[in-house]
Request: fold
Amino acid sequence: MRMTVVGCAGSDPGPDSAASSYLVEKDGYRLLLDLGAGAAGPLLRYAAAEDIGAVILSHAHSDHWADVTQLSYYRSKAIREGSDCGPLPIYGPSDMNDVLTSNPDDFTSTYAAAGELELGPIRVRLARVEHGECWASRIDDVLCYTADTEPCAAIEELAEGCGVLLAEASGFDADGPMRGHLTAGDAGRLAAKSEARLLILTHLRSWQDHLRLLDEASQVAGCPVVLATPGLRVAL
Reply:
């Protein structure tokens, strides 16, 4: 199994990256965690649109879902050319955009709920975290994706014992506690508490000093820390 960073920009696409999107592959099955603004095009470097088995949308902010409609367009083109991929399965929040829930020819939409899913060969555990209605993901007990959240018991429980922690780093401890988001220090402390073996910082806002984020998390994480970059691939 492996995870590929398709996009890692936070809040909006940046000059060097699309917004959040992460491709997980196992035994030929391809699962997307989020597909934010600008990410559908870069995704095609790593997977054909018709080969995506499902998409989990953490929440309804556009930097985490906006390019699902573009992915659907690519799939419709493949269908016209003979693919039988069918509607795109989506799991997401109860407030996801109507375009995803009212077009059954394009999408099969299911509201997320706490607990486990089996998507092809991949086991997924979802937990609701603190960012409106937002769902963090645990993949095969190996990868934990925080999505957007402030520190909370739910993300600590979900991350416990993970190998790779893919965590947002949306600011600095010096900014004070962030409502609905993790600072880089928060991400580092979560990695230490969960005993993760690798921390990947993501949701990187283009106007912030990413090396400073890396430094802040590294001081407390207790494990190697890297910055997400488009195209980064990690064996899980």
Notes: The longest helix spans residues 68-80. The mean pLDDT is 97. The helical segments are 40-43, 62-65, 68-80, 98-101, 153-159, 184-194, 210-221. The first strand starts at residue 2 and ends at 7.
